[in-house]
Amino acid sequence: MNDVCRGLIDTQAEHLLAGYRSENPFFFATPEHTLLAQGQHATVPQAKNLAALSQVVDAVLKKARDQGHPNPIVVGAIPFDARQAACLCIPQQVLYAGPLSRRAEAVSPRAGAFTITPQPAPQVYADGVAEAVENIRNKRLSKVVLARTLELAAAEAIDVQCLLERLARRNTHGYTFAVDLAGTGQGTLIGASPELLLSRRGLQVRSNPLAGSAARATDAMEDARRSQALLTSAKDLHEHKVVADAVARGLRPYCRTLDVPASPALIHTEAMWHLSSDIRGELAHPQASSLQLASSLHPTPAVCGYPNEKAFELISQIEAFDRGFYAGMVGWCDAQGNGEWVVTLRCAKVKGRSMRLFAGAGVVAESEPESELAETAAKFRTMLNALGLAPEGVL
């Protein structure tokens, strides 16, 4: 692509980002393109589980086409617990452009702009990790992901559009999103996820599971040391293998071919290093939509654990809050079955003057409570940096 075309695409993407408002149902930026949904043609009725939801979405898309909608797609978010209500709709229209350019600007520190309350308290979270490790060592399960939250309160309404722009500028290698949780009374779901759950383009499918993480360092030599330590960490390699194997198992029944890397690679965000497996395949049949494929993987051991049922049960026992849309999936699916769904990570719910941030860490037999606590603190930095906050002492 020549520079003139690239400049045109970048300009169009800038306009979509600048044009976002919190009442828009959906914004989605990836390394390849930018989407902005406007208006609402129809809402997607609730379903009892993900299999039923895929069927409902297919029916709603068909009805929209029959009604003359020129390009119906479903957009929105699905909770961690798929028994809870999803927030999906068909917009009146979706505007498309190429990728956003990275123009991250330093955000001035805002001391005192927010009050921050960890939920649960850091020591309570560490105690929960210790409880999980005991369960794992007693062979009840091999991995569980435990999360915690930060409750932020501001003196004035939080500027969602400004926050989205800052996240998008710093996350051009990942997936930045905003979903209007209209009808739920929960405000806006906003985030900058590094993890692609599932994309489908024609017969080509891709998943990029991440598991095994290390915080970035400001010193270049220390940052490089941490990345290499992660790449050779037996604990993190085991944690990653559990996730990559589960994703491969979930996709194989649908695929004619599936390419799974023998070992993970390193990727990074502004705040974290991650172990990454780029899994690609070709569908055996075109009937499986991106939502159906993503639903077959959700929730992966990267956000729940393994075995899934036992991990889900332990999360319910230890975590004293409802994850809601955190660790769910957010994305889109069109009438041809193409689409993208990412894991709802590095995210927050914003409503008026309040925000709730979420972060989790994978716990295995070798986990140390203080290390997992530190990992969640590092993951909070994605959102805190965009807000101009660096409250290390309270995390």
Pick out its properties:
395 residues; disordered N terminus; 9-stranded antiparallel sheet; alpha+beta; Anthranilate synthase; 9 helices
Question: Could you explain how this protein is built, in words?
Answer:
Belongs to the isochorismate synthase family. It holds the Pfam family Chorismate_bind. With 395 residues, this protein is of the alpha+beta class. Helices cover 32% and strands 30% of the residues. It has one domain (3-101, 116-389): 4-Layer Sandwich (Anthranilate synthase). The protein is globular, with a radius of gyration of 20 Å.
- Record field, number of beta strands: 22
- Low-confidence stretches at least 5 residues in length (pLDDT < 50)? 1-9
Task: Count structural domains.
Answer: 1
Share of helical residues: 25-40%
Task: Supply the CATH architecture.
Answer: 4-Layer Sandwich
CATH homology superfamily: Anthranilate synthase
CATH class: Alpha Beta
What proportion strand?
Answer: 25-35%
Distance between the termini: 45 Å
Number of helices: 9
The radius of gyration is: 20 Å
Major beta sheet summary: 10 strands, antiparallel
The oligomeric state is single chain
Q: Compute the average pLDDT.
A: 92
Look up the CATH topology. Answer: Anthranilate synthase
**What best-fitting shape do the alpha-carbon axes yield?**
globular
